[in-house]
Every structure is written in structure tokens, then in C-alpha cells.
Design brief:
There is one protein chain. The protein is an alpha+beta fold. The chain folds into 2 domains: 65 residues, no CATH class; 82 residues. It is built from 1 helix and 12 strands.
């Protein structure tokens, strides 16, 4: 009987110690203080959040506008760059034309004499200021070049081996 009584006392103290630990470790989390008020939205902040203009904008009257995700980061070109496979002397040439069909002009790229623009399998890329394209030479190999949209500042980027696509 004594063992049972002693076991009951020990278990009771153990249970009380667990309850004491539980109460002493309990903390209350306050998500927002009652007196806190968000700052007013301005043309550069949205209630304390900085607006960078890539996903939302705030105009001078405080109107918030969301920018569609598909349009963020896209660049709208006002002219088209295209490649004529059989240009002057039957060599490929880059041309540009406005979207309305006016201003069709050749881009005067001055390549070294043994190089010609690769027009069959490679293609070309355009950035906001440069054209990136492949050139080939029967004697020296195949390269990727770039130039400004007016044909100046021709730069060799890399020599490539085998097949490649831009």
C-alpha cells in the first residue's frame, strides 16, 4: 500500500511540474498593436511598402494600378529587322523596316572580306540596341558576331564549332 501511495505522490508532483512548465512557457503573440496605423500611401510608398513600379504603380492622385505580369519587362520594337538571303552580290544582308512598312533600309554591316552572314540554319537575335548573328568563313571557321542596329560597332563574340542555333 505504501508503494502505491508513494507512486501516486510522485506522479502527482510530476503532473504538477508539467503544468507549471506549460504555464511558464506560454507566450501570447500580438499580431498588431491596437494603436498602430499604417502610413498613408504616396506615389513612392504603399502604406509602408516601397513601390518599385514593376508590378504596381501609384499615380499622383494615389490611384493604384497593377501591371499585368505578361507585360512586365517586355520591350516594344517600332521596327522589324529581317534577313535577305540573296542581297548584293548574292550575299545575305540585314534590313530594317518600320511596322507601317515605311523606311525599308539596308543595315550596312562591314564584315571582313572572307566572312559572310550565315542565313540558312542559324537565325539571328535582336536586343533593344544590337543584332546578334552568325557568320561563316570557308577558311577560318564559324563565329557569332554582334553590331549596333545601324551596322556600326561590329564585335566578334565567340568562335563556335559544329551546329548552333541562336
Amino acid at each position: 500500500m505504501r508503494k502505491i501511495l508513494l507512486s501516486t505522490v510522485v506522479l502527482t508532483f510530476f503532473a504538477l511540474s508539467l503544468i507549471l512548465v506549460q504555464f511558464s512557457c506560454k507566450k501570447y503573440a500580438v499580431a498588431q498593436m491596437a494603436a498602430y496605423i499604417l502610413p498613408i500611401a504616396t506615389k513612392t510608398t504603399l502604406g509602408g511598402v516601397m513601390v518599385d513600379g514593376t508590378s504596381i504603380t501609384i499615380d499622383k492622385e494615389g490611384k493604384i494600378t497593377a501591371i499585368p505580369a505578361l507585360l512586365v519587362g517586355q520591350y516594344e520594337f517600332d521596327e522589324i529587322i529581317y534577313l535577305k538571303e540573296d542581297g548584293t552580290n548574292d550575299k545575305p544582308e540585314f534590313w530594317k523596316v518600320n511596322l507601317d512598312g515605311t523606311g525599308n533600309v539596308k543595315i550596312p554591316i562591314q564584315l571582313p572580306p572572307d566572312l559572310i552572314i550565315e542565313s540558312q540554319d542559324v537565325g539571328f537575335k535582336r536586343t533593344s540596341s544590337r543584332i546578334i548573328f552568325g557568320v561563316e568563313s570557308k577558311s577560318t571557321g564559324t563565329f557569332i558576331y554582334s553590331c549596333l542596329l545601324n551596322g556600326s560597332d561590329l564585335k566578334r563574340i565567340v568562335e563556335v564549332d559544329g551546329d548552333y542555333v541562336l
